[in-house]
């Protein structure tokens, strides 16, 4: 197995697949390793979409064990933690969570589209942050914005990948040209594209047993590729892992 343990999914744009990719990847990697999905998006998307009750960060601090959902364990940002997010130092908030995290082989973080001290603190602990990109002008704007945030932070353990979610199918000549230009200017994660694929877990329609029974073979090829690229040997070789 690779040295990569903490992987975040982040971009400043909403609706581009952060949650979908996080859930799919957690579910897939969960077949072979103990995976924690940390849901930092405060609109509780996984919790509400999967219609499950996640363990809250505040509960973990009180010693509650993370709850299993499908193939992975789900811990979620909660109101109580959110209330103190901007007044209490992040290390204090995360104090007591570290022990729970240590118990997992992989930790996947579904980041919110906004930045807070807690988000920055967590970002700094990621071995790698994957940035979903949608081929539209808004998508391009979000990428430049996100890239600048990384630059300001001096953060270089990230990779851009293309997610062709339903709002991002190529429609116009302009979008095609945009992609050609971007392909010349930016390094995508070795051509990693997740095609628009109905087989990605349709969170809207899922309930916990459905997630648990989701047959391996039905994972989209794109998700398989993502897992291999991010957690596989490739990533370890290109010295992008931050020393922790
Ligand atoms: N590769 C994909 N194939 C099919 N649908 C996708 C894909 N990626 C995202 N979607 C859909 O796009 C919508 C937004 O995705 P979501 O993960 O909620 O975005 P975010 O977390 O970035 O706000 C969801 O309805 C999701 O099912
Ligand atoms: Mg989301």
The rough form would be described as globular
Instruction: Report the end-to-end length measured between terminal Cα atoms.
Output: 18 Å
Q: What's the CATH C level?
A: Alpha Beta
Oligomeric assembly: single chain
CATH architecture: 3-Layer(aba) Sandwich
| Helix run count | 12
Q: CATH H level: which superfamily? A: P-loop containing nucleotide triphosphate hydrolases
What letter string, H or E per element, gives the SSE order? EHEHEHEEHHHEHEHEHEHHH
Provide an overview of this structure.
With 244 residues, the chain is of the alpha/beta class. The protein has a single domain, classed as Rossmann fold, CATH 3.40.50. Helices cover 40% and strands 18% of the residues. Strands 1, 2, 3, 4, 5, 6, 7, 8 and 9 form a nine-stranded mixed β-sheet that branches. Strand 8, helix 9 and strand 9 form a beta-alpha-beta unit. The longest helix has 17 residues. It is globular, with a radius of gyration of 17 Å. The C terminus is likely disordered. The structure holds adenosine-5'-diphosphate and magnesium ion. The site of magnesium ion (MG) has 4 residues, from helix 1. The site of adenosine-5'-diphosphate (ADP) has 17 residues, from helix 1.
């Amino acid at each position: 197995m690779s040295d990569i343990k903490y992987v975040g999914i982040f971009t400043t744009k909403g609706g581009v697949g952060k949650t979908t990719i996080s859930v799919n990847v957690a579910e897939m990697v969960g077949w072979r390793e103990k995976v924690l999905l940390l849901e930092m998006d405060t609109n509780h998307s996984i919790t509400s979409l999967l219609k499950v009750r996640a363990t809250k960060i505040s509960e973990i601090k009180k010693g509650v064990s993370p709850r299993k959902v499908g193939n992975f364990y789900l811990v979620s940002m909660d109101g109580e933690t959110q209330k103190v997010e901007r007044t209490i130092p992040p290390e204090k908030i995360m104090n007591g969570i570290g022990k729970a995290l240590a118990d997992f082989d992989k930790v996947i973080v579904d980041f919110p589209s906004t930045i807070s001290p807690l988000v920055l603190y967590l970002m700094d602990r990621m071995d790698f942050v994957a940035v979903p990109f949608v081929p539209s002008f808004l998508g391009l704007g979000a990428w430049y914005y996100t890239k600048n945030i990384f630059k300001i932070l001096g953060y270089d353990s990230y990779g851009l990948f293309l997610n062709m979610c339903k709002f991002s199918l190529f429609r116009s000549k302009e979008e095609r040209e945009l992609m050609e230009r971007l392909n010349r200017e930016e390094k995508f994660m070795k051509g990693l594209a997740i095609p628009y694929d109905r087989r990605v877990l349709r969170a809207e329609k899922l309930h916990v047993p459905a997630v648990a029974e989701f047959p391996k073979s039905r994972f989209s090829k794109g998700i398989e590729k993502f897992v291999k690229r991010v957690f596989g040997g490739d990533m370890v070789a290109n010295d992008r892992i931050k020393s922790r």
